[in-house]
Design brief:
By secondary structure, this protein is mainly alpha-helical. It contains 20 helices and no strands. It is globular and about 55 Å long.
């Protein structure tokens, strides 16, 4: 009877929900914090440079914590406890913002936000999902990664509604309560492995041969891994600096602010769709083929950005569609790639390394499009460079996959 109940409602779905909630919190303290920036700048009397530095601080701290502290942290804590503590940190983060009246206070919040971004992000979620899903792993990872997209859509809406009734500190305190509730839910529901509840991974009964292959999978050799890491470094550069400058590209090209905001409003939903689509296709066609397809989406999007001077709304909309679909490479794509080129034992470390290199590329390239635009008066040349970097990244990733397959024979 108990086996039937488990089959009717696999607990792996609850684990996936925990992943979605965790990534929602990550999006709320990191990516979606940009929605608060205009209000933070006004409330705290910050300069534009100080306001812009808040997100940069979050990214830098996240990179350091991911590279140095992530592994020791999860050796000391289980994923259940570690994630719950990190999400509780998100609640504290919003409380710090609520009591901040100047730049120093908001910097403290940004520092803690970077820690939360690293400790509750895709690396630990990927490891837990990998333990709970023997089949449809990539789709489950895509659904979890979509949590940040949900945050990017809902946080600005929540902000607009609440600011009509409460002050900015009051809104931050409401968000702190929401983060705390999610932390408690994750602690109550999450388990590191299905064996802790006397269960097996979802799909295990129907995929024992496949599971055996995955357990015996080899790690990529150092040359193959470095080839992949350099490609991912370049991917981070374009999905960071390239993506963040789309709005100024089109405004600089002569589009109105209303047109640009209308185009970019598609982004959140498309990003969610892209992450889920990547997972669904990867489960059917394999990670290598799916990765190449989504690289092609990115390349098509960047090429359309290079045509911004034509002032075509159709081309602009298509560019945003392709780019937001392709952005899945920098989230769920990293976990899927790590799973395809590493053993189960080294999966977590490989995911962490790919994540770190993505962040390094993003931070390093973030100001380059602006520098180029200042020099030549247009962002279009920067997007030709972005396109070339993406093509090179695709070549390196494809080479790494080919080397891995050859060495695995």
């Amino acid at each position: 009877m108990s086996e039937t109940k488990k089959e009717r409602f696999p607990y792996a779905f609850v684990i996936c929900l925990c992943g979605v909630l965790s990534m929602f919190c990550v999006g709320a303290v990191a990516g979606s914090i940009t929605a608060y920036l205009p209000y933070i700048i006004d409330y705290g009397g910050l300069t534009q440079t100080q306001g812009s530095s808040i997100f940069t601080i979050i990214c830098l701290v996240s990179l350091i914590v991911t590279s140095v502290l992530l592994e020791p942290y999860y050796k000391h804590f289980s994923y259940r406890v570690g994630l719950a503590l990190a999400l509780a940190g998100a609640a504290v983060d919003y409380l710090i913002y609520s009591f901040s009246t100047g730049y120093a206070g908001f910097v403290c919040g940004a520092l803690l936000g970077g820690v939360v971004y690293a400790l509750a992000g895709m690396v630990p979620i990927s490891i837990v999902i990998n333990s709970w899903f023997a089949e449809h792993t990539a789709l489950a990872l895509g659904l979890c990664a979509a949590g940040t997209g949900v945050a990017s859509i809902t946080i600005p809406m929540i902000l607009a509604i609440l600011l009509g009734k409460y002050s900015l500190p009051g809104v931050f305190r409401i968000m702190a309560i929401l983060m705390a509730v999610i932390a408690v839910l994750v602690y109550l529901l999450l388990r590191d492995r299905p064996q802790q509840l006397g269960m097996t991974a979802f799909g295990r009964q129907n995929s024992s041969k496949k599971a055996g292959i995955l357990n015996n999978q080899k790690d990529a050799d150092s040359k193959t891994m470095w080839c992949m890491l350099v490609g991912i470094l370049m991917l981070g550069a374009v999905t960071g600096g390239g993506y963040q400058h789309i709005s100024v590209l089109y405004i600089n090209a002569g589009f109105s602010e209303f047109q640009v905001s209308s185009i970019l409003s598609l982004g959140g939903a498309l990003m969610i769709a892209g992450k889920c689509l990547f997972g669904a296709i990867a489960d059917k066609a394999g990670t290598s083929s799916t990765t190449k397809l989504f690289y092609c989406f990115l390349i098509a999007g960047w090429l359309l950005c290079c045509m911004a001077g034509r002032k075509s709304m159709v081309l602009a909309v298509l560019s945003v569609v392709f780019i937001n679909l392709g952005m899945a490479l920098s989230t769920v794509g990293l976990s899927a790639i790590a799973k395809s080129v590493s053993s189960e034992k080294r999966f977590g470390r490989t995911t962490k390394n790919l994540q770190s290199f993505t962040m390094i590329g993003s931070i390093a390239f973030n100001t380059i499009p602006g520098i180029i635009a200042d020099a030549v008066g247009s962002y279009v040349p920067a997007y030709w460079i972005v396109t070339a970097i993406t093509v090179t990244s695709l070549f390196l990733a494809t080479t790494a996959f080919m080397r891995y397959r050859k060495n695995s024979l």
